[in-house]
Amino acid sequence: MRSNGRCILAGGGPGDLGLVTLRTKAAIEEADVLIYDYLCNPGLLQWAKAGAEVVYAGKQAGQHTLSQDEINRLLIDRSRAGKVVVRLKGGDPFVFGRGGEEAEALTEAGLPFEIVPGVTSAVAAPAYAGIPVTHRGYSSSFTVFTGHEDPGKGGSEVNYRALVESKSTLVMLMGMERLAEIVRSLQEAGAAPDTPVALVRWGTTGQQTTRVSDLAHVTEVAHGFTAPVVVVVGEVVRLREKLAWFEKRPLFGRRIVVTRTRKQAGGLSDRLRLLGADVLEIPTIRIIPPKNLMEFGELVRDAYQYDWVVFSSVNGVEAFFEMFLRLYDDLREIGNVRIAAIGPATAQRIRDYHLGVDLQPSEFVAEAVVRALQEQGSVENLKILVIRAEVSRDVLPKRLTALGAIVDEAAAYQTVPETDDPHGVLKRFREEGADIITFTSSSTVENFLNLQLPWPPGLRTVSIGPITSETMRKCGLRVDIQANQYDIDGLIEAIVDQFGHTG
After folding, report:
1. pTM confidence score
2. What is the extent of the structural domain holding 307?
3. 1 domain residue, yes or no
4. Strand partners, 482
5. Which residues contact 278 (CB under 8 A, 6 or more apart)?
6. 72 FRET partner, CA 20 to 30 A, in 8, 64, 176, 443?
7. How many alpha carbons fall within 13 Å on the CB side of residue 286?
8. Is position 275 within any domain?
9. What is the CATH number of the domain that holds 77?
């Protein structure tokens, strides 16, 4: 047992999860206590281990969840209690993140700490807006300064004349409330009124918005623009017209709701974000063990006795092999049983365990499995084990039994409503709405409706396949788009085809 804990002050990056360092991810996975800021992407928390204490210490204008002194005390107290404490800060902890003050407090308390640098929005937000902070033809240096200084200092320490005379690209963080005053100071220091200025809000995320103006008119252009905003001043802003790339992605500007389980949402969400979408993860279901875990275990134990094992979902594959590897040390104990899978994702998850898939019908529904098995010969007297959810369609076992097969059903897991909303996504959905909502199973439809959320005007629905579509219609929902290929690839293709744009 540790006699002393330690604290890791880690940069959470500018917003895009793809810009988080491997060291920060490892720190989050190790953390006993995770204390995170307002500007941290909530998706970072998915890497926290089960049972970790998660504390929100966000600071917005006029709203401080915890004071800096309270945060310092929390870091010290939890570290002294022998915990691995991760203080997760947006961007880089030492770039206007008060990480230096927190490190000082830990030093004075005699506690060990580690600093994990992060990608700062000062560089990342301009880059995602198509603005290089340096360029041989425009600027050979850049200067980062804050527009929000310590109010206790009695005056600004920023030397605006030096900034202007440096001919550097100027990047300002945390200055929207004082923008007019700062622009005036730059002009009084000699900056030309026609100097280009860019405002990048929520840079590197699907919410990114960029406005371009010049010093003389930027305060007008900034009307209604609220933090977080990175302000870029300098000739490099002119390059945006040629170099803007992120905002040209096919789904940029589309807000898309993903309703899969928390564990499964990441893959779909990541791919949509790479296409430029602003993704709201509203997990409606959670996967838990079946009610009769002992019965499931017995069927898994005896799997080698069957002619076929049929997997209907990725969740079933994971539950089966988690149980199998608790019972056996060697996958070869599964014997000569043949394996069937519904859908390519299910088949791939089986292959991840280094097992072959003997049957994968081209259609991703239970009826197709029956037809494919019949094509291989009579199923009469074949012993077949179907791995499924506790509550699911019974088409497959009924039809196989009617054809003379001996069928056992192994309830591998339950789907239950997801009730937690630790990241405030439901609040954002209520306030901001969305453009598109995706449904990947019947249970996601039913449980989303059970949340009784308001239906935003113009919200379009996308279904993964006919079974899900049938449930949507039974529940009174319109099906705007149904994927032609009934898997995640098909779902994404349908979204891009119907809602994507170029340029």
Report:
1. 0.76
2. 289-414
3. no
4. 463
5. 205, 206, 207, 253, 254, 255, 256
6. 176
7. 8
8. yes
9. 3.40.1010.10
Find out whether 433 and 459 touch, Cβ atoms under 8 Å: yes
Asked which of 137-141, 360-364, 459-463 is least confident by mean pLDDT, the reply is: 360-364
Q: Roughly how many angstroms between the first and final C-alpha of the chain, as a whole number?
A: 57
Q: Which candidate in 174, 176, 323, 472 is catalytic?
A: 174
Looking at the predicted structure, is the pLDDT value of residue 207 above 80? Answer: yes
**Active-site residue flag, 383:** no
Quote the CA–CA distance of 181 and 148 in Å, as a whole number: 12
Same domain, 326 and 269: no
- In the prediction, which pLDDT does 250 show? 95
Looking up residue 295, the CATH number of its domain turns out to be 3.40.50.10090
Q: Who's near 299: CB < 8 A, 6+ residues apart?
A: 385, 408, 410
Q: Please indicate whether residue 291 is annotated as part of the active site.
A: no
Distance separating alpha carbons of residues 282 and 271, to the nearest angstrom: 16
Q: What is the pLDDT of residue 307?
A: 96
Chain position carrying tokens 């209907």: 312
Options 25, 59, 263, 383, the catalytic residue: 59
What would the two tokens of residue 44 be? Answer: 């970072």
| Per-residue model confidence as pLDDT tens digits over 476-486 | 999 999 999 98
Closest CA to 167 of 146, 195, 127, 193: 195
Residue 326 in this model has a pLDDT that exceeds 90: yes
Provide the percentage of residues in the chain whose pLDDT is more than 70: 94
Whether 329 is a known active-site residue: answer: no
46, two tokens: 């998915």
What long-range pairs does 321-329 form, CB within 8 A, spacing at least 24? 321/353, 323/296, 323/297, 323/412, 324/300, 326/297, 327/297, 327/300, 327/301
pLDDT at 25: 97
Q: Tokens standing for 110?
A: 């005699």
Q: What mean pLDDT is predicted for residues 332-356?
A: 92
**Judgement on whether residues 387 and 457 belong to the same structural domain of the protein:** no
Q: Decide: 441 and 464 in contact? Cβ < 8 Å.
A: yes
Q: Residue 176 region, left (φ>0) first, then alpha (ψ -120 to 50), else beta?
A: alpha
Q: How confident is the model at residue 142 (pLDDT cuts 50, 70, 90)?
A: very high
Helix (H) / strand (E) element for 201: namely: strand 196-201
Q: Give the per-residue pLDDT at 286.
A: 76
The percent helix, strand, coil of the chain (3-state, each to 5) is: 40, 20, 40
DSSP code per residue over 417-471: E----TT-HHHHHHHH--SEEEE-SHHHHHHHHHTT----TT-EEEESSHHHHHH
Work out the pLDDT band at 2, boundaries 50, 70, 90. Answer: very low
pLDDT at 168: 96
Alpha helices by DSSP H, 231-261: 240-243
